[in-house]
Amino acid sequence: MKITIIGSGNIGLSLANGLVKSQLCAAREITLTRRTLAGLTDFAKQGFKTSDNNAAAVKDADIIVLAVLPQQVNKVLDEIRSSINPDKQIFTSVVSGVTCKNIKEKLYDNLQVVRVMPNTSIAIQQSMTCFATDNASAESLKIVKEIFDTVGMTIQINEELMTSATALCACGIAFFLRSIRAASQGGVEVGFHAKDALMMAAQTAKGAADLLLQLASHPEKEIDKVTSPKGCTIAGLNEMEHNGFSSAMIKGIKTSAKIAGELYTKE
Ligand SMILES: NC(=O)C1=CN([C@@H]2O[C@H](COP(=O)(O)OP(=O)(O)OC[C@H]3O[C@@H](n4cnc5c(N)ncnc54)[C@H](O)[C@@H]3O)[C@@H](O)[C@H]2O)C=CC1
Ligand SMILES: O=C(O)[C@@H]1CCC=N1
């Protein structure tokens, strides 16, 4: 399977790394494009094909992954239109706020388009990836799902929910990282060296997430097991809630979802 990633920045390169790690394909089967090739030198050394010519790079691809910023999309789609084969290729896009319809309007009506929303932990095969389509066949969706299943968990959702998925899962990486960083700063205040505090906070967060995923448990059920009566956990937790902990996370996710829906301007 030949994959071309158009726009090899943060998420494009994370995906490339994840796919090779998963052994789904070899680096030589992945073509990476970027405006200037200098940014891809290390990847070329690892065996990836690299190019600054989007039109040439999509020609032989079975799967195309569009991974440029929303404001760069129209220019790129104009560039590649004549090199796309709508009968043979599957077109995927990780671009926030750009619909399948937007892409087909710029390319071909009958092109199979799948929107995919991964996050940067795709580089270590730990992504939560949401995908949606309005026209791809079951067979094409199966191929896309199989690809992204190798680099984390996947869920098919309605396309209207893609901007919400962006906020919860893609932006979510930053939200949870900031939470871990904040916990580590608390850890320093109560006596640990910064490096130890960060490792301890990260492993604790991983354990909490795995309690939910591995036991199919609910957060409040697990919280009840930690909060001893009159104990220190409930004291700390309530202090955080009095300061708006849950509320801040909810408001942040709502704001991100709103902005995600406004990122693409058709010009
Ligand atoms: N960063 C993330 O965690 C996630 C990002 N996304 C989406 O992925 C897209 C890319 O985001 P990032 O990777 O963060 O941005 P980025 O700025 O790191 O990457 C975009 C890349 O596209 C390249 N590029 C720009 N114009 C180009 C052109 N004409 N031809 C070839 N390459 C070109 C840039 O040089 C850059 O390397 C955005 O639409 C974003 O909404 C989706 C999920 C997660
Ligand atoms: O911040 C952004 O707009 C992109 C989309 C999701 C993650 N990063």
From TrEMBL:
Coiled coil: none annotated. It is found in: Cytoplasm. It is an enzyme of class 1 (oxidoreductase). It comes from the Bacteria. Keywords: Amino-acid biosynthesis, Cytoplasm, NADP, Oxidoreductase, Proline biosynthesis. InterPro entries: 6-PGluconate_DH-like_C_sf (IPR008927), NAD(P)-bd_dom_sf (IPR036291), P5C_Rdtase_cat_N (IPR028939), P5CR_dimer (IPR029036), Pyrroline-COOH_reductase (IPR000304). It catalyses: L-proline + NADP(+) = (S)-1-pyrroline-5-carboxylate + NADPH + 2 H(+); L-proline + NAD(+) = (S)-1-pyrroline-5-carboxylate + NADH + 2 H(+). Residues 159-262 form the Pyrroline-5-carboxylate reductase dimerisation domain. The keyword Cell inner membrane does not apply. GO terms for molecular function: pyrroline-5-carboxylate reductase activity. SUPFAM superfamilies: 6-phosphogluconate dehydrogenase C-terminal domain-like, NAD(P)-binding Rossmann-fold domains. Its EC number is 1.5.1.2. Pathway: Amino-acid biosynthesis; L-proline biosynthesis; L-proline from L-glutamate 5-semialdehyde: step 1/1. Catalyzes the reduction of 1-pyrroline-5-carboxylate (PCA) to L-proline. Belongs to the pyrroline-5-carboxylate reductase family. HAMAP family: P5C_reductase. This is Pyrroline-5-carboxylate reductase. It comes from Pedobacter segetis. The gene is proC.
